[in-house]
Amino acid sequence: FAATGVTTYIDNLQRATGVSEDQLRPAFGKLIRATSDLGKAQQLLALTLDISASTGIGVTEVAKGLSQAYLGNRKALNAYNTGLTKAELQLKSFDEIQEILDTRLKGAATDAASTYSGQLAILTENANQAKEAIGKGLVDSFILLAGDNSVEIATEKMEKFGDQIAYALVGASDLLKKILDIGKATEPVVINGKTM
Question: What is the pTM of this model?
Answer without folding.
Answer: 0.65
